[in-house]
Amino acid sequence: MTKSTTREYGCFLSGTKLDSLRVRALLLRERVVEDRQAVEHLFMSRTRWSGAILSLLVLTSFFGCGPITSTTAIAEATVAIHGAKEANAPKFAAYEYASAVEYLRKATEEEGYAQYQAAIDLARKARDLAEKAAELSMGSPAIQRDSVPDRLEKHDPIRGVSGESL
């Protein structure tokens, strides 16, 4: 303990035990106040950091949904387009099928640019168009004609069986 330290607290070194105890108590009180301020600062900074970390986790969870949802939507659209192709949609519902294919292509492109909401919207539009193309091609009269058995198709009431004339 120096004289300057003891002067700050209003006591001088007189060599008595009481004076040294007072100085120690005052220094201890000062240290406790400093420690309390340090603890409060640390607590506040931890609270700020924990709030920031919590906010970051919430935001990343929202951003994490975009890639997952867009990939799922693109997969559903791809399955719908394959189903429409199996139903001969390129032949009987060409506009809807071609639109579905192009919307799917654009959706995968937008997903590549991390535009997930646009990719989701385009993929859903592609799926809807592919489903419409499959419905139209299944309801097409040409499909219904193709599904008629051969033995009935060969029978012609005017010409006879297999197109023979009477």
Q: Please, could you describe this protein's structure?
A:
- The chain is mainly alpha-helical and 166 residues long.
- Helices cover 80% and strands 2% of the residues.
- Strands 1-2 form a two-stranded antiparallel ribbon.
- Give the end-to-end Cα distance, rounded to a whole number of Å: 135 Å
Please state how the strands of the largest beta sheet are arranged side by side.
1-2
Strand content: under 5%
Mean pLDDT: 74
User: Which structural class fits the helix and strand makeup?
Assistant: mainly alpha
Shape: rod-shaped
Low-confidence stretches: 148-152
- The total of beta strands comes to 2
Number of domains: 2
Largest sheet properties: 2 strands, antiparallel
Compute the gyration radius: what is it?
Answer: 41 Å
Q: What fraction, in percent, of the residue positions are helical?
A: over 70%
Output the number of helix runs: 7
Helix and strand pattern: HHHHHHHEE
Q: What descriptive keywords fit this protein?
A:
two-stranded antiparallel ribbon; mainly alpha; 166 residues; 2% strand; 2 strands; 2 domains; 80% helix
In short:
The chain is 80% helix and 2% strand.
